[in-house]
Specification:
This protein is mostly helical. The protein has helices spanning 3-9, 17-22, 28-33, 41-44, 52-57, 65-68, 76-81, 89-92, 100-105, 113-118, 126-130, 138-144, 150-156, 160-165, 174-179, 187-192, 198-203, 211-214, 222-227, 235-238, 246-251, 262-267, 273-278, 286-291.
Length: 307
């Protein structure tokens, strides 16, 4: 069954077509073949299945140039060759096709330096950080970038607030934490950080690990949970963990307040329509399912921190 076939066969469910419009499992063929659905063209503009050719071939649609600016199919050549379009340089600043050379060659554009510092295609420099109007937040945005150079990371990590705030970001690895043991790391955020493995946790039992946030860490498996029943695992957060399957949940009924959370399960990336269809007894949240990318590989796309 294709992604949209399930939706089409279950139109009585509480679908969120606003979120579905941005969901990368929705293609232009699906949209154009079902014009009576409540598609949101603003959100469709950010959908990676939407190309510039599609936009140009459908000028009557209410495309959003703010959201198009985020779309990985929008290149600098497209922007440069269409100067009459109302491009939003704030959202373009986060587009993975934008490089620092492009920014430097076009200083008259209204770039958003907060977003530029988070753009993984941008090599963060001290000069770039100083261009951020809010000098207090500039280093934070820069240190959120997974490709931030180590010298810049070490320079700004001394700030207590920044250190705590970025502890959950992909730019923070256990090696960086160990290299800066005197810094004010937030172990609640670190516990959810996908760079933190169970081996790190076990090797550092003196650290204030947060087992609630560890429960949603994708490095935590059900075997680890079962092998450590003395730990304060959190089933609502475990419901989000991609290693937790419906079979596990059904075999382990909820007990008390620390039970499985079916809204979180609906957001779990390992959920597929086959699983939903095979388990009608589970109270699925279809609005949340509308946002679920269901294992779609979006590793080459920037996940925006600012909306």
């Amino acid at each position: 069954m294709s992604y949209y076939d399930y939706i089409n066969a279950n139109l009585d469910k509480d679908w969120d077509f606003y979120s579905l419009s941005e969901n990368p499992n929705i293609t232009w063929d699906v949209v154009s073949s079902n014009p009576d659905r409540e598609w949101n063209y603003s959100m469709l503009s950010a959908n990676p299945n939407i190309t510039w050719d599609i936009v140009c071939s459908n000028p009557d649609k209410l495309w959003s140039y703010y959201h198009l600016g985020k779309n990985p199919n929008i290149t600098w050549d497209i922007v440069n060759n269409n100067p009459d379009k109302p491009w939003d340089f704030s959202s373009l600043s986060g587009n993975i096709n934008i490089t620092l050379d492009i920014v430097n060659d076009n200083p008259d554009r209204a770039w958003n330096y907060n977003w530029l510092c988070q753009n993984p295609s941008i090599i963060v420099t001290h000069d770039l950080i100083t261009r951020i109007p809010d000098s207090l937040m500039g280093p934070y945005f820069a240190l959120c970038n997974p490709n931030v150079p180590i010298d810049i990371f070490n320079f700004y990590i001394n700030d207590r607030v920044i250190c705590r705030t970025i502890s959950g970001k992909a730019s923070v690895t256990w090696e960086k934490v160990m290299a800066n043991p005197d810094k004010c790391w937030d172990f609640a955020r670190l516990s959810a950080n996908s760079n933190i493995t169970w081996d790190f946790v076990c090797s550092n039992p003196d650290k204030p690990w947060d087992y609630g946030n560890l429960s949603k860490n994708p490095n935590i498996t059900w075997d680890i949970v079962c092998s450590n029943p003395d730990k304060l695992w959190d089933r609502p957060y475990l419901s989000l963990n991609p290693n937790i399957t419906v079979d596990i949940i059904k075999a382990t009924p909820s007990v008390g307040f620390n039970g499985w959370n079916y809204d979180n399960l609906s957001a779990n990336p390992n959920i597929t329509w086959d699983i939903v269809e095979a388990n009608p007894d589970i109270p699925w949240n279809y609005r949340i399912l509308s946002r679920n990318r269901m294992m779609y590989d979006d590793s080459n796309q920037l996940k925006y921190i600012l909306k």
